[in-house]
Structures are given as structure tokens and as C-alpha cells.
Amino acid sequence: MSNILEISGIEKKYPGVVANRDVSLIVREGTIHAIIGENGAGKSTLMKTLYGLIRPDAGTIKVFGDEVTLKSPQDAIALGIGMVHQHFKLADNATVLENVILGSEPSRFGFIIKYDEAREKLLEIAKTYQLDIDPDERLSNLGVGERQRVEIAKVLYRGAKILILDEPTAVLVPQEVSELFANLRELVKKGLTVLFISHKLDEVLSISDEITVMRQGTTVASLTPAGTTKKMLAELMVGGELPKPIAGHQVVSEKSFLSLKGASYTRHDGREILHNLDLEVHGGEIVGLAGVEGNGQSELIELVMGLLQANVGSVEVLGLDASNTLTRDIRNAGVAYIPQDRQRDGVLMFAPLWENRILGHQFASPMAKGIWVDKHAAIEDSNRVVEEFDVRTPGVNVLVSALSGGNQQKFIVGRELSGDPKLIIAAQPTRGVDVGAQAIIWDHLMRARSRGAAILLISADLEELFSLSDRLAVIYSGSIVSILDPAKTTPEDLGLAMTGANN
Amino acid sequence: MSTDTKTPSSLKSRAKSLASSPTRIAILIAGVLIILSFVEKVTGSTDISSPGTSGATLRFAIPLLMAGLGGLWAERAGVINIGLEGMMIVGTWTGAWFGFKHGPLVGFIAAAVFGLLSGLFHAILTVKIGIDQAVSGLAINLIAAGGARYLSGIFFPPVGGDRTVSPPVASFPTFTLPGVSPFLEKIDGKNIFFISNVAGMLNGFTKEMSLVTLLFLFMVPLTSWILWRSKFGLRMRFSGENPMAAESLGINVYRIRYVAVSVSGMLASLGGAYLALVASSVYREGQTAGRGFIGLATVIFGNWKPGGVFAGSMLFGFTDALRVRENKSVMALILVAGIVAAFLAIYFAFKKKWKPAIYAFVVAALALLLNKTVEVIPQEFVTVFPNFATLIVLTFLAQRLTPPAAAGAPYRRGSE
């Protein structure tokens, strides 16, 4: 097999940061090549360089043996390099076909789109690579897995020979992941090459033919999955030993800190989102809420936080009736909330860290002094959070927007765990953070459990659910359909329960 | 549970069939027309379906249509254009001045050029510099209103105008559709139930029609065709839905927005010129009277679709036309609305949808009560009706409206 892609000595500097330095990578034709590394290890920069979104300061890129300069995505596309973005770049208010052909529409007189021709070509591609898509379906009707297939079809439609997939499994449930992997194997079988970026080590070991590890902006190792273990990969990524989560002692209290009984919630458009939902979380335990996104998790959280009111049933939070209590009082009673969409609900992007530290604690000591907020206490405590949670930042006066996503998340978790909350609602607490940060966050959650806090963990990451949870509650179509013991459940069983296969 | 998961798709398909089935709409329109004919027969007021009313409706609707299409072009590309009103003022002024100097045709061309420039100005401010779209639009409205007043004071008095009014402009030639219009007039005269009423309305649309009117009406299918058939249209829609997606596929979102917003300005300005050159024959200060904003409302009313914008501007134009015609016809119209609402109430009751049935019933009862007790409807009520109608549409259809997802959001090239 020949080398389809050869990269050597790539360097990219930004003011004050070196994003890539001395990056070398060799990808052989017809293989699945995984690139792993922590957040901020330079994976994204490298991929953007390959896709022509970023121009490197130094180094060479060879495609099919010829040295090339990539000035824009068009150059990359012309060379047969296609990118499947992590955050889908699709428009809901358009059809699959329109999303696919955008930018490379076959046309008459360069103006009128030949839709029939385009549809035929897309169906041909779908058939060749066994991608299950309907050209005329509207995007708004599609689920995550289907959207990803549209993204892949988009790249194939442009005749890509090398596909770059940026953390493609981050948003998928196990069944969808295996479907994706089947699709990827099909692509490779037909002679295409796949570059697969991830930090899920299990997946990397199971799907890839070769693995390249990146750390601190450079490539540190290239290996094959045979004879490689997760531990080896993790240590290569972090550059040392991983911090180990302490199991700690566990005392589950009799009292339930959170209790939903027959809770139902109907949205204003008449759709019942939650139906007769029962859930209990006791002090000293972590209950993992597993489910495919959009099965009522967000609404459940908002019921607990007093942001929504249940139509039927009761929601009791630390002895308070959440349907009848202000969110402020719920929080003051000792409820911490790590929101799933950190940039929308968790922080003020254009405010400094110390101001963000105050959010949600603005009425209680030590952040508040009478009717005033205490700036000095906030700065001091922000420094503590930065220290304890290893938030990489030049200081607490910088804007949150200047931090990487993983560091924002560490700061939010640190803020929420301040003041020893009794009940912690942790929604996707480690989404998009690297293994090092994940270990820190897990460690703190376990410590909170040890001191008797009740934790409701909502996560799409099965590994997280299995590692942390004492019990697994599976939510499907707005109801808890089963309660599982993580020690006696396999990921496949859980995946089936999550997709409602048991009903 | 299974019913739960099915709800959204069935809801969607229902909304789709309701909105997109042309036969249904045709049946609905025919039904309303039959009721209208009936009411006219009973009350003896034939003004609503008279050629005069329909002609006036079209005359009032065209400026709104052009402003609405202007709003549509901008928003489909992702830029909200609050400056439509100011761009219309640009059109009224330049249309009148150049029309006065060199004839109405040159007036229109000048309005198109200056409108294009005003749109380009909005594009530079919002797309290139990144100023908030509402602020930029507001600025254009203020600049246009102030600028028009200032220039009027300088240019108009020396040539026989006034500080606020231009000298009269030669009117644009009109034509009557040969064969069709006289034929319709004959049928209208025969007083056959329903058929004559419809003929009367159609006659109003075809009689003494300005070529400009026809050309502007043609902008509706043209815009549709561009949006859904052409390469530029597809790219324009994606610029408004997800500019990041468009850019990742090598589309120059900035350029598309420049073009679309410039066209937006041109359309709005032409709508303004129509006010000065076709609907009247003079520039008058305050002539646009908020029509740019109503145009924006028709965009929402029409769910960002050219046909919807057309329907919206006809509705607003119709109420505008009623304002200048007999008050008696307003009463007749209320009766029509009452009967339509009553039918709707029965329809919903049959479908066991009690909430809409009750609403419709209340509207019907109110309308009939109004018809029985009130002699003359205050003019203000008629004027405010379209705004009221938009409010109702927004309240009931808000769930089904599909505005361009990225309209109004600032967009920087290369952002994630």
C-alpha cells in the first residue's frame, strides 16, 4: 500500500501559543488511521491545516506523493480530501439533497440546478457505500446518526478519497457507533482512506489500522492496535501516569434527596415530553441517567431546577416542592447544576472567570456580602477553583471565551462543586474534555459522593456512566423504562434499553 | 408511548399539507368568495367586489409586496433589513426627482440604482463591519428620512414644488388587458350570483393596469424560482440557514449577502418609486407611511416564502383599500368574517378540536354582534386591522413558522 498522505515538520504558531510544531504523519492508502490526543494537543489545528482552513507556518504536505499547498477547503476538496465535522454543518430547513450538493451543484448554464442528475448521483453513492439516506427527506426530521451519514455523503459526493472524521462518535449511541464503524469499513474496503480523530481509546483500538498520538502540539508516537493497550495510549497522551480515581467509602443515606413521583410534563404545543416518571436519588449515591438525547433529559433537569413545572405528579428536591419553589431557593438549599450546554447555560462567555464564579452563588456567602457581591472573595475563590481543577488559564481576570472548551468545563464543575452541595445535577460533565481533565472531574464527583452528596449524572458517554454510577436509570420517550445495576449490565444491553428495544 | 413519538412527524406533515396544497387553498378562496357574494346580495353593498376596490387593493399592495420581497431577499440570506422603510423613502424621492427631470422610466431606473446603493450600504455596515443589523437598519431609516427632507428643501422649491412636495411627475402609461377586461366588465354588469362578483374583482386587477404593476408582480414567481431552482438561490438560503455550513463548502457567504441585501434595497426602493410614480404622481414627505415596516410584517406573515409575502401584502393592501372606500363595505366584510368564522367553528367542532372551535365561535359571535349593533365602524379600526391580523397569525402559527435560522445573527468569516 502506498502512502496517500505524508506530513512532515508542520508548524503553526498563534500569538503566545504554539498550536502545532514538528508534526509528522504518514497515512497509508486504504486504512483507517486514528489520531488521538488530549484537548489542546493540536489535533484540530492539524486537521484544519489538512483541510485548508489554516495555513501552516512551516512544513510540507504530500498528497499521493506530490507536495501541495492548501489555501482553502476547495483546494483540499480538489485533491480528494474531505472533512466530516464534529459539529454538523447542515441546515435543518432544507432537504438532504440540498445539503449534500450545496457548493457543487450540477447546473445548466451555470445557474439552474439539475436536481434530477444530482439525486441520481447521490443515490448511486448511497448504494455503492451502503449509506442509508433518503435524498428528499428534510433535515429537521433526521436523528443524529442519519445526519452524520448525510455529512459523509456530502464528502463522498465531492469525490473525496481521504475522509477526515473529527470525533465522529461523540454524539452517537452504541448502536449508531457500530453502524458508523460498519460504514467506515465499507468505505475502506472500496479503497478510501479514513482519518479518525477521537479520544475514546476503546473505539480507537477497535476500529483503526494505525494510531498516531499527539501531545502538546506535536506527534509523539505512531503504533498499531495490535499489542497496544488503553493504558499505554492514555499515558502517551498525557505524558505520564494518569491520576487514579479514588473509590472512597460509600454511605448511602436512607433519605432521598431527589424524588420524582409520577411526574409528567406537557409542552405548550401539546406534546407530552415526560410521562409518569419515577426517580429517586439518595444521599451518597450516583444515579446515572442513560438515554438517547431528546428523550426528556433536558426537561427532567429543568423540572428539578424549578425552571419548568410538572403538570402531574411531584418533584421533591431536598424536601422542597420544585414545582412551587423559585430556582434561586432550590439552589440556595444546596443544589448544584452542571448544565449540558456549557456555553449557553453555564457561563457568560464575555465576562472574566471571577464574575462567572459568582453566577448561581450570588445570594450566598462567601460570594455575597449583604446585598453586594464580594469581588475579593470571588477572585480568591476563583483562584482556588483554577488550582484544584487544573484550569489552564493565565489568570482569573481573563474572559471565559479565551479558555478552551475543556477548561471552561473544568471551571464550571469547580464552581458548582464549591460550597459542598447536597444534590448535584451533572449533565454531560465531561463532554468534550480530555482524559486528564475527565479524571479530575470524576475524582471530584466521587469525593462529593463520599461526603454524602446525591448525584444525578446525565451522560451520553457510556464509559462514564459505567465508571461512576451506582445505579443506572434508563430514560426513553419521557419515562424511566428500567433501572439497571452497572456491574451486571453490558454496554450492549444498556444501548438496547436506551433505544426502547425492551418495550 | 408509541403515539408520543409519532406526534411530531404527523404534525409536520399536516402543517405541510395545509400550507402547500394548492387545491385546498383554491377551495378556501372560492368558499370565502361565495360567502362574500352572498353577503353582498343580502346587504346590497357591492363595493367589496367592485373593480374599484380590487384595483385599489393591487395599487396599495404592490409597494408592500416590493418591500416584503426586499425583506425576504435580505432575511433569506441571513440579514434582517429594518431599513426597508428608509430604502422606500430613497425610492420615492429619487423616483420623483428623476421622474420629474427625465420621465417616469428614468425615475424607476434611478430608484433601482439608488435603492441598490442603499442596500449595499446596509450590507457593508452589517456584513463587512459587523454592526448590529437592527442598528444599521435604524440608521438607514433615519438617514433616509432626514436626507429626503433636506434635499427636498433644496431641490423642489426652485422648480415649482414645495419644501415637502415635489412638482407633479408625468404618470406612467397604463394599459387595459385587451379582450379580457371588457369581457369581465360585461359579466360583472349581468349581476349573476358569484360569477359577476368574481368577474368584477378580476376586472379591477386587469383594467388600466400599469406595466410596472405586472412587472413587479412577476417578481413573486421570479423570486421563488431563484430561491428553489437556481444555484444562487440554494446558496443564498444556506447563507441564511447556516452560514458556517455554506462557508465550509467553499461558498463566499459575504458575497452572497452583499448581492442579496443590495437586491433587497433595490426592491424596496422600487416599491417606494411605485408610490410616487404609479399610485400617485408626486413625492410627498411621509409618503411611505411605515409601509417598509408593514413589508417586514408580510415576510413573517408569509413564512419567508414569496407566495406568502404576496398573500400578506394583498391582505394589507385590501384593508388599505377599504380605508379609502365606503364604510358600508367594512360592515359587509365583518359579516363575511363572521360567517367564515362560524363555518370554521363547525369544522373544528366536527374534528373535535374544541379549543380552536371555541375561538372561532367567539370571533363569529363578536362579528355578528358587531354587525347588528354598530352602524359605522371607526376608520381607525379598519386601519389597524392588518396589524391585528399579523398578530393573530403570529400567535397561532408561531410554532409552524420556519424563519431562516441564522437571520439576524452576526456572522464572521472563519468563526465556528
Automatic annotation (TrEMBL), chain A:
Q: Which PROSITE patterns does this entry report, sorted A to Z?
A: ABC_TRANSPORTER_1 (PS00211), ABC_TRANSPORTER_2 (PS50893)
Where in the cell is the protein located?
Cell membrane
An annotated GO cellular component of this protein is: plasma membrane
Q: Does the keyword Zinc apply?
A: no
One Pfam family named in its UniProt record: ABC_tran
Domain ABC transporter residue range list: 5-241, 258-502
Q: What Gene3D superfamilies does the annotation carry?
A: P-loop containing nucleotide triphosphate hydrolases (3.40.50.300)
Under InterPro entries, the record lists:
AAA+_ATPase (IPR003593), ABC_carbohydrate_import_ATPase (IPR050107), ABC_transporter-like_ATP-bd (IPR003439), ABC_transporter-like_CS (IPR017871), P-loop_NTPase (IPR027417)
The answer to whether keyword Cell membrane applies is yes
Q: Which UniProt keywords apply?
A: ATP-binding, Cell membrane, Membrane, Nucleotide-binding, Repeat, Translocase, Transport
Recall the GO molecular function terms of this protein's record: ATP binding; ATP hydrolysis activity
Protein's membrane topology: Peripheral membrane protein
Matching entries from PANTHER family are given as: CARBOHYDRATE TRANSPORT ATP-BINDING PROTEIN MG119-RELATED, GALACTOFURANOSE TRANSPORTER ATP-BINDING PROTEIN YTFR
> What is this protein's record name?
Unannotated protein
| Origin species | freshwater metagenome
Taxonomy, top ranks, is:
unclassified sequences, metagenomes, ecological metagenomes
TrEMBL record, chain B:
Q: Where are the transmembrane segments?
A: 21-38, 58-75, 82-100, 106-127, 134-156, 209-228, 258-280, 292-318, 330-350, 356-374, 381-398
Which GO molecular function annotation, any one, does this entry have? transmembrane transporter activity
Q: Which UniProt keywords apply?
A: Cell membrane, Membrane, Transmembrane, Transmembrane helix
Q: Name one GO cellular component term.
A: plasma membrane
The membrane-topology field of this record reads: Multi-pass membrane protein
Coiled coil (residue ranges): none
Determine if Transmembrane is one of this entry's keywords.
yes
Q: What is its main location?
A: membrane
The question of whether Membrane is a record keyword is answered with: yes
Q: Please state where this protein is localized.
A: Cell membrane
From the Swiss-Prot or TrEMBL record, give the protein name.
Unannotated protein
Its lineage opens with:
unclassified sequences, metagenomes, ecological metagenomes
